[in-house]
Design brief:
By secondary structure, the chain is an all-alpha fold. Helix content is 89%, strand content 0%. It has helices at 3-22, 26-53, 60-81, 85-112, 116-150, 156-177, 181-242, 249-277, 281-305, 307-335, 341-363, 366-392. It is elongated.
Length: 393
């Protein structure tokens, strides 16, 4: 089967979904498909003309299949011009199928009519095209490896495989151009195996990185829970010691409710951590989503028992999340080569103030808490501005 017939077959299963997923504008999608159809029709016409010039007998029904495809293509253009885009795309599918069927029927006769030299030349071009695709795949792999390396992943074995692949691809090109097609075909297969091994070697490193990132997220959630409950417990227990016995019941009830909420959250944290440690990161994802809600639930429990304290803790938690987002942005910018020195200094300054804030919350120093929170807000806003500037460069 010729490359053209293979290409026409793949259009129905690969090209169409790809455009449908990527194009936001229906008109653009339809125009692209019509362009593909037009090229297919021209290629089929050239193939049929070549077959006839070589005395290949083409059955009338096969010729009619091609003509039917061209007629349906005209209908598709008319529907596009009328704005009936969905119907036009359906016609494109029908036309491509008809042209493909016609090509499949003449391909064996056309190929058998080729001289050995022509067949060899076509095979060489096919191998060169395959080598180009492998070279492009190698380039994308190099970019992925470079990103992984910046994240601290050990990718030395992947880089070695990629070097092997690049050398093989260049060898394939040289052999195909020199007409050593059989040797080129063998090295092409070796190149495909090498890049497959590169992908396989990179996957464990990526999986480890996913586990590490997921575990860092869990640890961040646990730290937020500890901060919220630790501050609340410290404040409420301090009140408990100062209040007379008859007035302690409400504080004790609040402490018990907060402890129950904390236990529920910590149980989910432990479950998520176990999943990640076992390598079941995908299974842990829904649980990680639940953990964010658990932090909010614990803070809500504190607010019900002590609104002022709960609000202060809630504000502190939001600051902590904002600082974590900035840390992530700074890391991405650093990987892209940006100078993040000033941004990191602002983030560190906000982080240090957060530690002071927790202590002042425990001491119930309202004035100090308000002052620190204002300073953190200001620094976070400055850091966001710096990050925005770096992203625009």
């Amino acid at each position: 089967m010729t490359i053209l017939s293979i290409l026409l077959g793949s259009m129905l299963t690969v090209v169409l979904p790809s455009y449908a997923q990527q194009a936001q504008d229906e008109r653009v999608t339809t125009d692209k498909l019509l362009e593909i159809l037009d090229n297919a029709g021209k290629s089929a016409e050239e193939a049929f003309s070549l077959a006839k010039s070589r005395g290949v007998s083409i059955p009338a029904q096969v010729e009619q299949k091609r003509l039917d495809g061209l007629a349906i293509a005209k209908e598709a253009v008319q529907l596009r011009d009328q704005g009936r885009l969905a119907e036009a795309r359906q016609k494109v599918i029908q036309a491509l199928q008809s042209i493909k069927d016609a090509m499949v029927n003449i391909s064996p006769q056309l190929e058998s009519s080729r001289t050995p030299a022509e067949a060899q030349a076509i095979k060489a071009r096919q191998i060169e095209s395959a080598a180009e695709r492998l070279a492009e795949a190698s380039k994308r792999m190099e970019e992925a490896v470079a990103t992984a390396e910046k994240k601290g992943l050990n990718v030395s074995n992947v880089k070695a495989k990629l070097s092997e692949t690049k050398a093989l691809v260049e060898k394939v090109r040289e052999q195909a151009r020199a007409g050593r097609v059989d040797d080129a075909a063998k090295d092409l297969e070796a190149s495909e195996n090498a890049i497959g091994q590169s992908v396989a070697a990179l996957r464990p490193a990526i999986d480890r990185n996913k586990r590490n990132q997921s575990m860092q997220y869990v640890e961040g959630i646990e730290e937020r829970l500890d901060n919220a409950t630790g501050v609340a417990r410290s404040v409420l227990e301090g009140l408990l010691q100062r209040l007379p016995a008859p007035a302690r019941q409400g504080i004790q009830t609040a402490l018990q409710a907060i402890s129950r909420a904390e236990e529920r959250a910590k149980a989910k944290v432990a479950e998520a951590r176990e999943m990640i440690q076992e390598g079941r990161v995908q299974d842990a994802m829904p649980k990680l989503g639940e953990l964010r809600g658990e932090v909010a639930q614990v803070i809500s429990e504190i607010k019900q028992r002590n609104p002022d304290l709960g609000s202060a803790i809630e504000k502190s938690d939001k600051n902590k999340v904002a600082i974590k987002v900035l840390e992530d942005r700074a890391e991405i910018l650093r990987e892209k080569g940006a100078d993040t020195t000033s941004l990191k200094a602002k983030i560190d300054e906000a982080g240090n103030l957060m530690k002071d804030l927790v202590e002042k919350l425990k001491q119930q120093d309202t004035n100090a808490v308000n002052d620190i929170q204002r300073r953190i807000d200001s620094i976070v806003n400055e850091a966001k501005g710096l990050a925005d500037q770096l992203e625009r460069r």
